[in-house]
Structures are given as structure tokens and as C-alpha cells.
């Protein structure tokens, strides 16, 4: 799902002709994921499936931009899915009342990244869908970070 979100976001940026600097990290992240997936499939003896997945990727990549409403809908759905995954993390933290292996530093860096992306989006494209995405992710990342910090302090004092 994460790879799909990256692909949609990258395709969205390209479709609207945004400057390369606003999305340059996404092709690098996607390339890393693709190489990792290929290695996993190769070493598990499923390299033939990689061809199938490559075809599915290229068909999906093309279909995203058949109509404007498709890419816009895909972008909004990816925002929903990303937010849902953070809400699931929050729910798990609340139920267990234990931060476990969750890293406040990692979630804090994610919040910082979202804040930086909000600033760069306002300065470069001012795209409302992208701004809404990063604002929602910023709020949820801060919330997860605060929850992790809360439960890690509770655990230490017990």
C-alpha cells in the first residue's frame, strides 16, 4: 500500500507538471522498493511473478492519467489510506497502553518532514489536495509521537 501511495503521489505530481524538485525523492524511494521487492522475489524463487507485477505496475501507471478525475480520486484515496494506517497505530497504542518498539524519534521525523512539505508545497505549487494530505499527516504524526512519548513515560515510572 505504501508503494502504491508513492506511485500515485509521483504520478499526480508529474500529471500536473509540478517542478521536479517538489517530488524528486519519490522516484528514488520507489526504485529502492522495487529493487527490494525484486530481490525478495528472486531469492524466494518467484522471479517470474516479478514480470506479472511489472506489467500490472505499467498498466496502473498509464490508467492513472486516462482522466483527470482518476488521478484526483487516487490521490484522495491514498490520503485516506495513509491516515487510516496512522489511526490503526494509534488504536493499537491506546489498547495496549504500551509504546513497545515504536520510536518517537522516527514518528517525530515524519512530522517534521510533513511540516517541511507543507512549506515547500505552499511555496511551489499551492496544490490543495497535496496540502490537505500533508496537514492531515502532520497532525496524525504529532498525535502518534505524543502517544508514544506518553506511554513510554508511563512504562518507565511503573
Automatic annotation (TrEMBL):
Keywords: Membrane, Transmembrane, Transmembrane helix. The gene is Pqlc3. The chain crosses the membrane at residues 26-43, 50-71, 130-151. It comes from Dryoscopus gambensis. It comes from the Eukaryota. This is PQLC3 protein.
